[in-house]
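Re: beginner question about structure tokens

> Can someone show what the tokenized structure looks like for a real chain? I only ever see the sequence side.

Sure, here's an example I had lying around. Input first:
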Amino acid sequence: MDHLTAWLDSGRRQDLLHEAAGLFDGPPRQEVLQGGTPAQQAPEVVTAVISHEVRPGHEQAFLDWQERTLVEQEKAPGFMGSELFKPVRGVQEHWVVVFRFDSREHLDAWLESDTRKALLAEGSSHFASYDVRKVGSSFSGWFQFDHGRSRTAPPNWKQAMSVVLALYPTVMVLNLTVGIALQKLTIREYIGLFLSNVLSVSALTWLLMPLVNKALAFWLVPGRCTTRRIQVLGTGVVVLGYLVCIGVFGLITHQIW
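And the corresponding structure tokens:
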């Protein structure tokens, strides 16, 4: 604020105001807004899925315990909401609780908090076991670094761009090979589409996404992408990949059709 006040009162600024006096009506007005905070990037929502094997006859007690747990969760920083799903015979045998936090740090803080540990000790008489799974991204299974030891996933927009980079050429190659072959064999379209989906997902999971992760690790791994230059470079590489794929397949399909 001292620097702002110094500029507002400076002789240089007064000279500029006199020079520009003919460009506006009336004397200039100024207001100084204090207490603002820098704009924050949209958080990456992280979801926890917890399944409980509730002891027979303890269902109501478990529900009461869940209500007390929710009251405490709502006080936790970053908590964004939760849902409770009852068992469905033949489909889902356990009680499942899904809750979201605005960041992995806030989720981990809640899971490791003394409050939650006390609640688990209180509720342990109502369920035989429970399992916690974290879902931190849209395509988390395709983005594993350092042999799965890294717990930090890339932002969702980077994951989406990377998946498109691998998916587009995969779909095009399958259409130009397997798709044409299935048409010649007069395989019904819905069966052909199913087979193509199986092949494309398999190719992405075990071949292409590991290659994309390796090639773009400098941009995908949050701990490595620490400067704006790397951010722009990685984004440019992916966009260039899009353009190359479009150009190549444009030439191929033009010659075929």
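Each token stands for a local structural state, so reading them left to right follows the chain. The chain is about 55% helix and 10% strand.
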